[in-house]
Amino acid sequence: MVASTDIAVGNDLRLRVRGLNVSFRRNDGPPRQVVKDVGFDLQRGECIALVGESGSGKSVTARTLLGLAGENSIVQAEALELDDETLINRSDAWWRGVRGSKVGFILQDALVSLDPLRPVGKEIAEAVALHRSMARSARWAAVVELLERVGVPEPEIRAKQRPGELSGGLRQRALIASAIALDPGIVIADEPTTALDVTVQAQVLAVLEQMIAGGTSVILISHDLAVVSRVADRVLVMKGGEIVEAGETEQILRAPQHAYTRQLIDAVPSEHTKGTRLSHEGRVAAAELFPDRAASDVQGDIPLLEARGGHQELPRAGQGPAHRRQRGLVPAQARRDTGRRR
């Protein structure tokens, strides 16, 4: 277990997490712990990725940082600080003042997250109006500027369209615009490229990179290591609610030390291995996937292939340095060529 990854110093420190534990009360037994002794720092303009399969605790960790762990949650920590302010035992009113203005949240499914009956511009305008008092015309101008900022073409027209009239990439960018409407110092992105094709993924990631270059700190929740390799400075690998490995992205992806990290990397496709299945099946505790089910219903382990949808054909990763370069691991020169600061 890696309990804490501490590198941030001075005024660049945006978020400090030490000894974070999250449990959920149950009707049929004692509380079940899903996040265990997690710790890390987040600096200004830094992107860290929380990586792991479903049930690893990464999303619960992220939601706890937004005060959204849930009514049945028990949150304990040695330190949980945002800009030197504690996040422990805060009121709902306090959190409403923080969410959006200090911490933004990008959800993973734009089609579900956006109101299908409202133009996306109205959704973004609502986010702006939560913390800023301005005339309607000024608010609409801010919406158009936000859409333009995240790379939406013809923003005046797109702002008046409903989610169903937009492509997946444009919907996701509208969500990002809503998340950054109040210029929060930290943005939490929960699987922001899920269900997007490769071209659209690249466009969304370019928006995230632009945000990071401008000083926004990003916590990326992902199971996609190809995405992580492009935008993250550091990786925290989570399994069973714990950080089992942590370090700089290139170091983790090129020389993983933990067996679970190697399994995650081995599940990344390469062009030479398309269509074959993994030769080994990692396993995840069934109880981690179904926290609200009775313990008797979810005993034992579930193969990772089943946990992520066993019907999928997953690629067999090759062995050796040549294949490692082809598994979505971006070399240092390629990072520089894309303009990503390292």
From TrEMBL:
Top-down, what is the taxonomic lineage of the species of origin? Answer: Bacteria, Bacillati, Actinomycetota, Actinomycetes, Micrococcales
Where is the region Disordered? 306-342
Q: Which family does it belong to?
A: Belongs to the ABC transporter superfamily.
Q: Which GO terms describe its cellular component?
A: plasma membrane
Tell where it localizes.
Cell membrane
Is the keyword Cell inner membrane assigned to this protein? yes
Boundaries of each ABC transporter domain copy?
17-265
Q: How does it sit in the membrane?
A: Peripheral membrane protein
Q: Which GO terms describe its molecular function?
A: ATP binding; ATP hydrolysis activity
Q: Which InterPro entries match?
A: AAA+_ATPase, ABC_Ni/Peptide_Import, ABC_transporter-like_ATP-bd, Oligopep_ABC_C, P-loop_NTPase
Q: Which UniProt keywords apply?
A: ATP-binding, Cell inner membrane, Cell membrane, Membrane, Nucleotide-binding, Translocase, Transport
| Protein name, entry field | ABC transporter domain-containing protein
Q: Where does it primarily localize?
A: membrane
Which is an annotated Pfam family here?
ABC_tran
One GO-annotated biological process of the protein: peptide transport
Q: Gene3D superfamilies under this entry?
A: P-loop containing nucleotide triphosphate hydrolases
